[in-house]
Structures are given as C-alpha cells and as structure tokens.
Specification:
The complex is a heterodimer of chains A (344) and B (337).
Chain A: E1 15-28, E2 31-44, E3 48-52, H1 59-67, E4 74-83, E5 86-87, H2 93-99, E6 104-107, H3 111-114, H4 121-132, H5 140-150, H6 156-159, H7 169-181, E7 187-191, H8 199-216, E8 219-224, H9 227-233, E9 236-241, E10 244-250, H10 251-256, H11 261-269, E11 318-321, E12 324-326
Parallel strand pairs in A: 3-8, 3-9, 6-7, 7-8
Antiparallel strand pairs in A: 1-2, 1-4, 4-5, 9-10, 10-12, 11-12
Chain B: E1 3-15, E2 29-41, E3 45-49, H1 56-63, E4 71-76, E5 79-80, H2 86-89, E6 98-101, H3 105-108, H4 115-127, H5 131-144, H6 161-173, E7 179-183, H7 191-208, E8 211-215, H8 219-225, E9 228-233, E10 236-242, H9 243-248, H10 253-261, E11 311-312, E12 318-319, H11 328-336
Classes of the chains: A alpha/beta (344), B alpha/beta (337).
C-alpha cells in the first residue's frame, strides 16, 4: 500500500492538483523539525477542499511547500505536488516563479500586511496583469480597474489610486482576490482568508471567492482552523494533526461519520448554533514535539483515548468507505471494504 | 436582581483633524459611542457584539474607566464613576473591583514578567499587598484558574496559549473584582483549548459571584456564555435582549445579517440578505438618520430622516428599528428577491 496517498476514488474529474507523500522538515537550532510527513490529497477543477487543523498542524506549511515559498530553513524531503503534469516539487525556482501567480495563486491572512504598503492597489493589480495576465502597458491600468470592479469594489477608478492603509480589511482582501485571480489561475490557495475580518465581511469575502471559482472553474484549497467555515464552504475536508493527514472525506460524511478520534474531538469542541457549553468538550493533550527523532508513528496516539498496541506501527491512510480516508488503527467506524479505485 | 453597573446615555466623542482657531468650520468629531444605556446585574453575563469600529472597545474603556466620558453617567454599585477622572480613578478603591481580561494574553502580559509576577502586579499596585500575603493571594488566584504552581516561574513565551489565557484571567481575578470585562478572551486560542477556558470562566463566575461583560465577535461563543446580549452598530445599541432569543429571532435587520453570516457546523443557512458595503462614516453622523440606513436591506426614506429610538418589545427585548417586530414578512420579501 502506498503511504498516505489520497484515498479519494477517481469519481472526481482529473485533479488540478495532486499531492503525494509530501514531507517537509525545518532545520532549527533545536534540531530537525519534521513539520510535514507524507501528506497526500487532490483537488479537482471547480472544487473547494478545506485543510483543517489546529495551529501547528501543518496546514500552512503544506501550502507554502506547494507554492515553493518555504522559508530558507525548510526543505521538502520527499513527495510530489502535481499541477496537471508539472511536479511543482521538482520544478526549478525560476520556472516556479512563472507558475506562481499564473497557474497557482495564493491569498493570505491579514491582507493589509500582504499588500505592498507604498504602492497603490491599482498599480499592484496592474503589475500582476503585466507579468501574468497578458496586459500591455497601455491597457494594464484600465484592466486593473476592471478587476477591482469584478471583486465588487464600489467606485473602482477612485479606489485604484488608494494605498492599502486607506482601505478597510475587507476591501484589502478583495484587492488580494483581484490580484490572485487576475491571471485566471487553475488553483487558488486561500490561507485563512477571513481570519481577522468581521463575520459579515467574512461571508461576503467567501461568497466572492466561491463566485470567482465558479466563473473560472479554478480549484480552491481553503486553509482554516474553523471547522464550521470549512463545513459551510468546502465540498471536501482534510483534517491535519501535527503534520499528518488523519482524515479526508467529503464534508457531509466527515461531519456525520467522523472516523478518526481526533476529527470527532475537533467536532465536539466546536461551538454550534444550538447546544450548551456543557455539551462541548476540549481535545485533551497537546501536539507532540516534532523535533524528537522518535516521534511516534501515530502523532495523535499520546492524546488518544482509543489507543491500542497496534498504534506503535506506521499508520497509513486507508479508505474507510468510498471516498472517505482515515489514518487510524482503531477508527470510530468499522473499516469497510477498500473502495474501488482507492489504493489497495 | 439589582444592577451592579448602570450606564445612562453614555457618549464619547473624539476630535479628529486639525483644530481651527480662527472660525471656519467647527471641529469634527468621531462619535465612537453615542447615547448608550445599559445595565449589568449582579451575577449576569452581558455579551457585547458588533463589527470592528462599532464602539465596543471604546465602551469597554469607558466602563473600565480608562477613558473619560463626553456625556452620560456610569453607576457602579450605586456610585457615580463618570465624574471621577480616569487619572484619579487609577488610584481609586473601586479600581480593583472592575478588572479586565485582554484579548491575547501573549501580547498583553509583560514578556519580562514571570506568570507569578504578572499576577502579583495588580495586587501590589491596587491592594498594596507585600510578602507572604502577596504570595498567598497569587497562589490562590492561580489555583482558581487551574494553573499549576510549577508554571508560575515561567515567562509568557514558555507557556502554551491556554496557559497564557489562564494567567491573564488569574491576574484579573486576583484583586477580587466584582465586574470582569473580557475582551475576546479566546480569540487567540484553538478550538481544542477554547472550551476549557470558556468552562473555566463559567465556573469562576459561579464560584466568585462575578458579573461579566463579554466582548466578542464570535457569536457562537457569545451564545454559550452570555445571559443577555447587546448588539452595537456605529456607536449605538441597535438591539439587546436575552441571548438565546436574540439569536433565534433577531428583531433588528443588522442583528439578522450578523446571525446569518456566522458559519454553521450543520451547514444550514439562515436566509438573510448579505451585508455589502461599509458602515457610514462615524465622523459627525446625521443625528436624524438611522446609522444603518444605506446599508440596511429594509431601509426606506423615513430611516434617513428619523432616528429610530430603542423600543421595548417586552420580555427584556429592545430594538432600534422602525420596522422591528412587524418586519418579518418585509424581510422575507427582501431576501427572496
């Protein structure tokens, strides 16, 4: 059996991005941190897939590794990230820079920090259009205004001349989205795109991202710590814990029949529209120290109440029902027949 | 129940722009808080919600008496506090009775203070405790917040997010306050630890007989912890009432949009029009227009010429909208188009 390869059957159209066995380590003064260990998933055109987990679970590292934006201490130690036929992991940096912005785009948490503070937003959009969007010097400015209009910014001709500090957080995130979709990318990675925004703005920004995805058919990876946001916006949810992917399923199946104990704990800890405080419970314990050479094979084992002797062995993502993968030796739901098309 | 805190027509205006000495246009002001009246009963938890810029934080600073009011009165335990200038209040006996838990304990605790020192600081300054009495009180507060004593020697960066949150709470309850103002106490925490901190707050309230003002933009958390909720928009209260009822059947169109925008785990959507656009400018707003006018899915011409007062709808529910209470079918028309 292939390790952690996506347990998703090929019911989806040809994936835009397929990540296989992606591993990342950081060299730090405290030793080698194995931040990501054999992570795999795929996302198809027009689909939204959410990567969910606590801080330190490796969600953002996954995105940065795919984009080739890991900081200097980080190294991809194995695996592939296939964008169509291109393996982004094996692509030399110069070529990757051409793919970034054109075929894969990313939006970040705290848009005001991600934008250039001393350049007007119109110019920043025009920059991207010139480099990746096939614009000419003559029409770049007009197209930038058009792009602002498309993301629902009122009075775009005036706003194009504004600096990021003159715009609200929600407006800045719209500008980021305009920059990201300027070149009509195949894949959009949204890293906590609405954290720090008001709920009302949050809803509007997420609507906009989904509307853009629907119009252009781009695939979206939504990185969030908010399970409720993922539940509302994504067709699939992959749950990460300490650099491992522990469960990967379509949203309805994951929420109604969580199979990994961690997923179930996460759901039980998330406040809902109904229910009292007494009905919620926390996830006991903390993340393991990823610097240790002898990290347990199951990184959740130390926190897990369903731990058995089998948990000392290497745990792999297995299809639990068709399209529902789980990496656990003692899952909450009995393992069904391996799904068709899933790795045997 | 008797009121512990009572705000009467409280307002706060900040001057903006350059003051003109020789006539010309009058000094413009930001109306951060405008005509706010509310009460907090003993043992009650009142949630304060609204978008950034709605005046929550200014109101909290007025209540904790870090800022002076422009207009209005603040009664705390039958004593009028608004007339005591903030500088004088810093050395007042009641300072110890109104304490605050700040947003991100990792940012708000002095990084060069150990946990013990951070908890001891207000005890030294406000109660003048020293020596053994101080140590005993620090350990008592830490114990109440579930902080093991071996962690007390650590600095903030050596503590986890949940432990830091506990330090922030222990620091606030050390002086045995009667009112605790909590400003997004769990915003920096993962859901896995958020629940423990919320349960700790609930327990402390019961054990110590505290009253809470709970500021948050996470409506799901507000619903869990609060008896009553106050919704603010651009400096004014637009709706208040028992938390469960306000969230189940909001009266004000703004509350309705707010509730509908919260992501839900069950995937169900509450149908309501999305709030687009930005709030209007808080600088010298038209006193005769509803602050929500222009962004409101219901708004009619009357809303631009007549400020809706906060009306009593019975059962402790109040809303400031001309159409609240009779608006159900009106909203449905709006949202279905």
């Amino acid at each position: 059996m292939m390790l952690a390869s996506h347990a998703v059957p090929a019911a989806t159209p040809a994936p835009v991005l397929r990540v296989e066995n992606l591993s990342v380590a950081f060299h730090t003064r405290g030793g080698l941190v194995r931040a990501l260990d054999r992570v795999g998933f795929s996302v198809g055109a027009g689909q939204t897939m959410a990567l969910v987990g606590e801080s330190g679970s490796g969600k953002s590292v996954t995105a940065y590794a795919i984009m080739g934006l890991l900081e200097a201490a980080g190294r991809i130690t194995g695996g592939r990230a296939l964008l169509g036929d291109t393996d982004l992991v094996a692509t030399p940096p110069k070529e990757l820079a051409r793919i970034r912005g054109r075929r894969v785009a990313m939006i970040f948490q705290n848009p005001r920090a991600a934008l250039n503070p001393i350049r007007t937003v119109g110019k920043q959009i025009a920059d991207v259009l010139l480099r990746h969007g096939g614009a000419t010097r003559a029409n770049a400015w007009d197209r930038a205004i058009e792009a602002l209009r498309n993301v629902g910014i009122p009075d775009p001709a005036r706003r194009a001349k504004a600096y990021p500090f003159e715009l609200s957080g929600g407006m800045c995130q719209r500008v980021m989205i305009a920059i990201a979709v300027a070149a009509r990318p195949e894949l959009l990675i949204a890293d906590e795109p609405t954290t720090g925004l008001d709920v009302t703005t949050q809803a509007v920004v997420m609507d906009l991202i989904q509307q853009m995805a629907a119009e252009t058919g781009m695939a979206t990876i939504l990185i969030t710590h908010d399970l409720a946001l993922a539940a509302e916006r994504a067709g699939r949810i992959a749950v990460m814990h300490a650099g491992h992917m522990v469960e990967d399923a379509d949203t309805a199946s994951l929420l109604s029949r969580p199979s990994h104990p961690y997923t179930a704990r996460l759901i039980a800890a998330t406040p809902t529209a109904a229910g009292s405080l007494d009905s919620l419970s926390s996830v006991p314990g903390g993340l393991p120290d990823l610097r240790r050479a002898d990290i347990p094979h199951c990184r959740y084992a130390a926190r897990c109440e369903r731990r058995t002797d089998a948990c000392d062995q290497i745990v792999e993502m297995r299809a639990h029902t068709p399209g529902h993968g789980v990496a656990c030796w003692n899952p909450l739901t009995p393992m069904g027949q391996p799904a068709e098309g899933a790795p045997a | 129940m008797t009121a512990l805190l009572e705000l009467e027509n409280v307002g706060k205006r900040f001057p903006v722009g350059r003051r003109r000495f020789f006539g010309g246009t009058p000094q413009p002001h930001v109306h951060a808080v405008d005509d706010v009246s509310l009460t907090v009963d003993r043992g009650e938890t009142v949630g304060l919600v609204g978008e950034s810029g709605c005046g929550k934080s200014t109101l909290v600073r007025l209540i904790t008496r870090l800022l002076d009011v422009t207009t209005g009165k603040i009664w705390f335990d039958r004593r009028e506090l608004a007339e005591v200038p903030a500088r004088v209040f810093a050395r007042d006996d009641d300072r110890a009775h109104i304490q605050m838990v700040f947003q991100d304990a990792g940012e708000s605790i002095n990084p060069r203070f150990t946990a013990a020192n951070a908890i001891a600081d207000p005890l030294r300054r406000l109660l003048g405790l020293r020596g053994e009495a101080l140590t005993a009180r620090v350990e008592e507060a830490a114990l109440q917040c579930g902080l093991p004593s071996e962690l007390l020697g650590r600095f903030p960066h050596q503590l986890s997010g949940g432990q830091r949150a506990r330090v922030g709470i222990a620091r606030a309850i050390g002086t045995r306050p009667r009112l605790l103002v909590l400003d997004e106490p769990t915003a920096a925490l993962d859901v896995s630890v958020q629940v423990t901190v919320l349960k700790l707050l609930q327990r402390l309230k019961a054990d110590l007989g505290l009253s809470y003002i709970f500021v948050s933009h996470d409506l799901n958390v507000v619903r869990l912890l609060c008896d009553r909720v106050v919704v603010m928009y651009l400096g004014r209260i637009v709706e208040s009432g028992p938390a469960a009822e306000v969230f189940a059947a909001p009266l004000h169109p703004y509350t309705r949009s707010l509730v509908a925008a919260v992501p839900r785990l069950d995937g169900e959507r509450v149908e309501a029009a999305r709030l687009t656009g930005e709030p209007r400018s808080p600088i010298d707003p038209d006193p005769n227009a509803c602050r929500f006018h222009g962004r409101c899915p219901v708004g009619v011409a009357r809303c631009g010429t007549e400020m809706p007062p906060l009306r009593d709808f019975g059962g402790g529910r109040f809303a400031a909208c001309h159409f609240a209470g009779q608006a159900g079918d009106r909203w449905d028309k709006v949202t279905s188009t």
